[in-house]
Design a protein that fits this description.
The protein is mainly alpha-helical and 160 residues long. The chain is globular and about 50 Å long.
């Protein structure tokens, strides 16, 4: 299988994870009868998603830094596959201990997600779809979005 197909599958899987989190949030909203009662960490996922969309539109429509090394002429900075996969999986790593009580299971899932992030980053370069700088920028954006998410999603202590 070609590297670009593998990275496409990983991207789709990350959207699947996002869909599960969205369904969980919707379920909480319906059963708790208020959006204010939905877990803060689930609602906070909208922030990195909006930031990713803004970065994608900016670098795809406003400021094209460079084009793909395969000669297609498409904008390639930053690697959207890498940015999306890393952002979704990094944010999910924060959520897992809240919903999965078996430590060994959520650690195994963490390792799997970090492996998929790595595979995506390397695969985008190996498939000649991105320059290493595109992938590095995607990882940096994802890290920034994840930090913003962690700050927003963090539960406040009751006595603050």
């Amino acid at each position: 299988m070609e590297w670009d197909k593998i990275t496409d599958i990983i991207l789709i899987a990350s959207f699947g994870v996002l869909a599960v989190l969205g369904i969980l949030g919707l379920y909480q909203w319906v059963t708790r009868k208020s959006i204010k009662k939905v877990d803060r960490a689930l609602l906070a996922m909208f922030v990195p998603l909006a930031l990713m969309a803004a970065v994608y539109l900016f670098f795809d429509k406003v400021w094209i830094v460079n084009t793909r090394p395969n000669g297609s002429g498409e904008a390639s900075f930053p690697s959207t596959h890498t940015m999306v996969v890393a952002t979704i999986f990094l944010c999910t790593v924060f959520l897992l201990p809240k919903y999965i009580k078996q430590k060994a299971l959520y650690i195994a899932l963490d390792i799997l997600m970090f492996g998929l992030i790595t595979l995506t980053a390397l695969g985008r370069v190996f498939s000649n779809m991105h320059w290493p700088t595109d992938v590095a920028a995607g990882l940096i954006f994802a890290a920034v979005f994840a930090v913003i998410y962690f700050v927003i999603a963090k539960e406040r202590k009751k006595n603050e």
